[in-house]
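Take a record:
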Amino acid sequence: MGGKISNNLSASRVTFESSHPVEMGKSGNSIQCRILGEVDFPAWDRFVNGHPKASIYHLSVWRHILQQAFGKSWYVAGAFQDGEIRGGIPVVHLKSLFFGNFLVSMPYVNYGGLLADDDTLGDPLLDHLIQLGEKLKVSYIEFRHIQSFYSQLPVRDEKVSMWLSLPGTVAELFQVFPSKLRAQVRKGEKNALGVRIGQVELLDEFYEVFARNMRDLGTPVYSKTFFRLILETFPAGARLVVINKKSDLPVAAGFLLGYRDRLEIPWASSLRQYNSLQGNMYLYWNCLKFACEQGYRIFDFGRSTFGSSTFKFKEQWGAQPIQHYWHYHLNSSVGLPKLNPQNPKFFLAIQLWKQIPLWISKRVGPALARHLP
């Protein structure tokens, strides 16, 4: 882990133990649920690293990243049996005047939710998070799963991740692509596009492309600090990929984050005025090539709405959909939250945001984006 993350944060703002122990296991010993404290985090990380379904976003270091980048509090509701962690759910508290007061597992990223040795731990952990939500006076709790753990809760299922199984060599990978796709990649080469793969030294160029693309989409951009902290925290698994013209002008860029056998591209952008150069195709090809060369077995293209244009873009590479289940515990009579660009309430704001100067979007955007999950 990088050494620039401060360790002086309190373990959590709220601590209490579940008043409803759950009997479980052959030994008959009860499960106790509580909010983890700082002393528990090494054990929690060992549990995460040993669990086959864990994501990098379950690790406790995200409490520092999200606190420093967004000013948000991170908690883990943990389930213990015989003093050992058997499961848990990390959540982040988001509260703002315009977007509301709620808990999410996990915001800003693609994965989160329940991680447990036994799926039956889902209900006692849910009960415990409901208690936490009551203390924080949240209107709802959102769980981002890739398994349907909570059939009793309202769910959204239009989101999918797109995963591509990787062969052993780059040559094998290239040959499985359709001829049209291979031609687009070769066009990037013919246009003399350059590629650089690195870390913090490429952050300014990545951010310039990313911020401009987000402005053009009408979406507030995350702070540069957020990306810097991830790069510094995960030096072995985090990389930036920048595609540039001969003039060294960056035309496309992506952020890669690897964990175990899967390499994910959670953030990627390209500049529309250079679409004819095939910079976006060349970006993804070089990311896939890097994944193969580094020995990853799965390339994760990130999250999309099923059937959308981004879904179809990822599908053309051979990626297969992995279903997401976003479950909601609602503390009020309102319907499911819609904090996304498809909400008609945000239409005018999105159109106006597309017109503002880039320097304003980079200055104001992070203050808004930190409240959006």
About this structure: The first strand starts at residue 22 and ends at 23.
